[in-house]
């Protein structure tokens, strides 16, 4: 894979993440749910998750992650000309959370919009940014995955609420430079809307939702929360992640032995290990932090990238596999060459104060 010739001509030059301070352990969930730490750890690998403070939203967390990515890339935010936020838990129906993030990080000249592909959101947003930058339409893009999943789970449903958490991650995308490492070599996006009922959440415009009234029809009360067929989602996730990963690696002209690190969507440790086994990747080359954050939906991959970079698990020139899966159903894989960031570890330092959007 030579990213600037056969790849997409765009690379990641900075990564950052923000997670809320509040930690909710499995032991704390035992107080209110008919569950145990042992059950949750054994079936999911999750030990704790973060919960956003009452005044935090997807845009405030996304802005903090964005500022961390900007510091990591050592760029002036005024030079960012595109902000894409992936979220299925936006601050509101509109405006796009990306516009609040654009303002808060000081990207005064950037266009901004949201992408919603559930847990596959960051990959969809990153693929979009790569195309903008590769085409020359944008010079520098900020891509954010940010979620307040704990506000859309049913806290009485033990089969779903133990899985999710809040947080945000971000990446800066710039043009690849001939002779320097870094570039996107292959990306695949897939979906199957016939399976939408396996994993979904209603919203204010769902027929029958509270507030979804009009003068011509009566509304039925319906809570806005995640509904999931866990076993079916599990099977689909393992199949989709492994098949698409293998396809993306082949498309990049590589083999599994070339992949230095796989950073998959963090939904469930068992899904990750099953996928790694199917594609023939030893777990030492797979990044896992689902134990600490649970499933933060579109934020899992950028949070994991920022942590992997800070942990020294990503080196310039490394071939990296990203793979995601989520409601839609929707899934993806991407193979890229790691460029390295200009200020390593900056992504995990406390970001500067964020202007209130
Ligand atoms: N604590 C204790 N017991 C629980 C529980 C919990 N938190 N949640 C479910 N159970 C129970 C079930 O009620 C069921 O009991 P029953 O046999 O008496 O009916 C039993 O555990 C087994 O349930 P099952 O659904 O078969 O368990 P599982 O091994 O499939 O694990 C999930 C359930 C949700 C962990 C698993 O299906 C999963 O992770 N699916 C993918 C979900 C996901 O990642 N979604 C997001 C994708 S982006």
Overview of the structural elements:
The protein has 357 residues and is of the alpha/beta class. The chain has one domain: Peroxisomal Thiolase, Chain A, domain 1, CATH 3.40.47. It is built from 10 helices and 13 strands. Strands 1-7-6-4-5 form a 5-stranded mixed sheet, with helices on both faces. α4 links the parallel β4 and β5. The N terminus and C terminus are likely disordered. The protein binds coenzyme A. The site of coenzyme A has 21 residues, from α2, α6, α7 and β12.
Defining traits:
alpha/beta; Peroxisomal Thiolase, Chain A, domain 1; 5-stranded mixed sheet; 4-stranded mixed sheet; 10 helices; 30% helix; disordered C terminus; binds coenzyme A
Gist of the model:
The chain is an alpha/beta fold and 357 residues long. The protein contains ten helices and 13 strands. It has a single domain, classed as Peroxisomal Thiolase, Chain A, domain 1, CATH 3.40.47.
Spell out the blueprint of helices and strands.
Blueprint: E1 10-18, E2 22-25, H1 26-32, H2 37-44, E3 48-51, H3 58-73, E4 82-86, H4 97-105, E5 111-115, H5 121-135, E6 140-148, H6 158-161, E7 166-175, E8 183-191, E9 199-201, E10 226-228, H7 230-251, E11 259-264, H8 269-279, H9 290-293, H10 300-310, E12 319-326, E13 330-337
Parallel strand pairs: 4-5, 4-6, 11-12
Antiparallel strand pairs: 1-7, 2-3, 6-7, 8-13, 9-10, 12-13
| CATH homology group | Thiolase/Chalcone synthase
SSE pattern, N- to C-terminal: EEHHEHEHEHEHEEEEHEHHHEE
Main sheet properties? 5 strands, mixed
Mean pLDDT across every amino acid position: 91
